[in-house]
Write a structure and sequence with these properties.
The chain is an alpha+beta fold. The strands form 2 sheets. A 4-stranded mixed sheet has the order 4-1-6-5. The longest helix has 13 residues. It is globular. Accelerates the degradation of transcripts by removing pyrophosphate from the 5'-end of triphosphorylated RNA, leading to a more labile monophosphorylated state that can stimulate subsequent ribonuclease cleavage. Its EC number is 3.6.1.-. This is RNA pyrophosphohydrolase.
Length: 166
C-alpha cells in the first residue's frame, strides 16, 4: 500500500459473555482491501468511526449494526493500534481504497443480554450484513482464525483484555 494514504479511524469490539468468551462473526465476503481467505473468515466486530463521532459512541453503534446486540457494559479499551491492508488492485472508487489500513481503538464490553438478541444477518442503518453466522470463542484462539494482516492487532488485544477472558 502507498504510505501516503491515511489510516481509516476504526473501533474493534471484544464482546465478552458471562463465561469470558468473545463473540466472533464469520465474514460473508471480501470488502475491497479487507479480504477473506479460506479458513480464515472469522473476526470480532469492528467498523469505521464517523466524522465527529466519539469512539465510545462508535463502538456501541457498530456493535448494534453488526450484531444487533445493545446490552453491553464497558470494561476497558486499548490505545490506538494500526494494521495495513494487503495490496489491493480493485477499483479505486471502493470506499476503503483511499486508506492504507485501519487505525483502531479496541473496546472490551461485557454482554448483558441474551444470545437470542444477536442477529448478524439483519441489515441496520443501511449497512449490509457482514457476517452470516457467529459464535462465542476463547479470546486466545481468535488470532489464529483471522486473516494474517490482522493477527498482530488481535494478539495485542488478547494480551490487553486477558483479564476479562474466562
Amino acid at each position: 500500500m502507498s504510505s501516503d494514504k491515511p489510516y481509516r479511524p476504526n473501533v474493534g469490539i471484544a464482546l465478552f459473555n458471562a463465561d469470558g468468551r468473545v463473540l466472533i462473526g464469520h465474514r460473508i465476503k471480501d470488502d475491497g482491501p479487507e479480504i477473506v481467505l479460506p479458513g480464515l473468515e472469522w473476526q470480532m466486530p469492528q467498523g469505521g468511526i464517523d466524522a465527529g463521532e466519539d469512539p465510545r459512541q462508535a463502538v456501541m453503534r457498530e456493535l448494534w449494526e453488526e450484531t444487533g446486540a445493545v446490552n453491553a457494559d464497558y470494561l476497558g479499551e486499548t490505545d490506538w493500534m494500526t494494521y495495513e491492508f494487503p495490496a489491493y488492485d480493485g477499483p479505486t472508487s471502493h470506499r476503503l481504497a483511499k486508506f492504507r489500513g485501519q487505525r483502531q481503538k479496541w473496546f472490551a464490553l461485557r454482554f448483558t443480554g441474551r444470545d437470542e438478541e444477536i442477529d448478524p444477518l439483519t441489515p441496520r442503518n443501511g449497512q449490509p450484513a457482514e457476517f452470516d453466522r457467529w459464535r462465542w470463542e476463547r479470546l486466545d484462539r481468535v488470532a489464529g482464525l483471522v486473516v494474517p494482516f490482522r493477527r498482530d492487532v488481535y494478539r495485542a488485544v488478547a494480551t490487553r483484555f486477558a483479564e476479562f477472558a474466562g
